[in-house]
Amino acid sequence: MNVACLDLEGVLVPEIWIEFAEATGIPELRKTTRDEPDYDKLMKYRLDILREHEMTLADIQKVISTMDPLPGAREFLDELKKEAQVIVVSDTFEQFAAPLMAKLGYPTLFCNSLVVDEATGMIVDYKMRCEQSKLTTIRSLQACGMEPICTGDSHNDLGMILNGKAGFLFRSTDAIKAEHPEVPAFDEYSDLLQAIKEAR
Amino acid sequence: MNVACLDLEGVLVPEIWIEFAEATGIPELRKTTRDEPDYDKLMKYRLDILREHEMTLADIQKVISTMDPLPGAREFLDELKKEAQVIVVSDTFEQFAAPLMAKLGYPTLFCNSLVVDEATGMIVDYKMRCEQSKLTTIRSLQACGMEPICTGDSHNDLGMILNGKAGFLFRSTDAIKAEHPEVPAFDEYSDLLQAIKEAR
Question: CA A29, CA A16: separation in Å to the nearest integer?
């Protein structure tokens, strides 16, 4: 049985940390995995900055709730759900994604979690769902007979893109596209939808 | 990260084969796993009967498209999606479930597939997704860090109900409830929703 596995940020919604950095005027939060490839280091850096600015989870969610999915993303998902099962496989945190998932019609989301201090509302830690999240997720889906058709834009998506039944790049960088000329790359939802339908 | 794993037939929609037997007036199709515990034998028997009556997949889908989810099921799912990730884990076939999934707002579905002869439209075989489907599915989900909270009504649901983070019976039989007094059993969606929320 086919399941379309979609990355979230860059594919269905804007990059959450970058939008958040702009909305709050905290430019240090613009740093991404492109600048700091060690995700653990990057997250600790981000949580330190949030603490410095005394930003609670609620403050952050308030900013995120003003964000919208990428234009056409909701319509794409609504069409895709008619053609295949869908799981959004993301390295974001469920507490961040929640307001955006509502605007996407609540597709099923596999991601990570934040650890929040109930008394202060501050984010004190985070809990990764598993190692090599995208690859581990599709290996797990394959273990119960699902056939993942995977789409993403970044390096961390390649594990699922290269090991599923089919894989696609969507609005990726020129560098990644050049590194993987064998992976079909698309920029329009209509082309991606067609490719997923044909890969079933 | 929590994921609510829900059985389909008996929990969200009526028993498809029984409804189908009634709609077509073919009483032999009322036989279920309660009468014939060997699922492979049962399915071969069902496909033989469909062939005898020269019923194509399209004929069957036409009947299924007149069926509706159980009253309140859609509203329950819409609420549940706000509280947890949701996957419907079913032993039905995707080609049968499709019209009902549309009426449920397209929750993500893990189930089996029918093999259809393209020329005649007849169902010639079926393909099970994996062995011990419900248990294998939640074991796979656990392997990528998801924590299944499982609900079902039948014997074949016990594998996931007993091995998830939490498990519930919904509109089950007195016999199954008596066999598993340790599993909370509910008959109303509001009670089930509350139990899933508390189990997170």
Answer: 10
